[in-house]
Amino acid sequence: MKHYIDITLLPSDDIGVHFLWSKLMMQVHLALVEIQDDKKQVPVAVSFPKYQPREHEKTGFVGNKLRLFANDKNDLERLNLGKWLNRLEDYVHMKSIADVPSNVIGYESFNRRRKSGSPDKHVKRRMQRHNATLEQALQYFDGYKMPKEDKALPFIRMKSLHSDNEFCMSIIRKEAVPSNNSVMFNTYGLSAEGVLPKF
Predict the structure, then answer these.
(1) What are the DSSP E strand ranges found in 10-130?
(2) What is the dihedral of CA 93, 89, 59, 143, to 10 degrees?
(3) Residue from 36, 5, 3 nearest 185 by CA
(4) What's residue 120's pLDDT?
(5) Which of 119-123, 125-129, 132-136 has the lowest mean pLDDT?
(6) Residue 148 and residue 188: Cα distance in Å, rounded?
(7) What is the C-alpha separation between 119 and 159, in angstroms, rounded?
(8) Is CB count within 10 Å lower at the N or C end of the chain?
(9) pLDDT band at 113 (very low <50, low <70, confident <90, very high)
(10) Signed CA dihedral, 129, 132, 134, 139: sign only
(11) What is the rounded distance in angstroms from the CA atom of residue 170 to the CA atom of residue 180?
């Protein structure tokens, strides 16, 4: 990746950072949908430079900064983020497109992880899909616990444009090895194969 844009969230007393993440990621998603190809993929990636996984009693958090990458500067210009973030201008600070510096400290990838879900979520789903009573569903999932690795992941609360349902988009970060392979990203800017510079 050769070019990037930084967006910093600016929460206030009445607007929290988690609420801002929901709004920001929805607008970025809509911008990426506008430039998607016929396979619903885009040449723009997102990263979370302040990402911190859960450690001990400290909750995982994606931070307060979003970074968008592209190999071609035109792809970032095509996004027209100023238009999409217009309503959030008091709560986000967007820098101009810049070149990725040569002194990167490593490489990483960001992807969405579909969590196995909480016991309550499974019970509700079992009741709906299998016409089960609460007691039957609770008995079916007796002893179930959500895996620790799922609980540890930072997430952004999102809303589906298709179903209008809310969901938690869990973000997993992994160290990566530099690659010359050209990778496309989904309309959230995420990909397990994407290699992004860290600086």
Answers:
(1) 44-47, 65-70, 92-94, 98-99, 106-113
(2) -140
(3) 36
(4) 76
(5) 119-123
(6) 25
(7) 21
(8) C
(9) confident
(10) negative
(11) 27
Length of the chain: 199
Residues in CB range of 176: below 8 A, 6 or more apart: 107, 108, 109, 194, 195, 196
Q: Token match 């510079």: residue?
A: 197
Tokens of 12: 């206030």
- Structural domains in the chain, CATH included, are 3-115+153-198 (3.30.70.2540)
d(CA 48, CA 119): 29
Determine how many CB atoms are found less than 10 A away from the CB of residue 179: 11
Per residue in 150-192, pLDDT tens? 566 888 999 887 777 788 899 999 999 988 888 999 999 999 9
Query: In this predicted model, which residue has the larger pLDDT, 87 or 120?
Result: 87
Nearest 10 degrees: Cα torsion 49, 52, 53, 58: -170
DSSP letter at 9 equals E
Q: How many CA atoms lie within 13 A of 48 on its CB side?
A: 27
Which residue has 């589906």 as its token pair?
160
- Rounded to a whole number of angstroms, the CA Rg of the chain reads 19
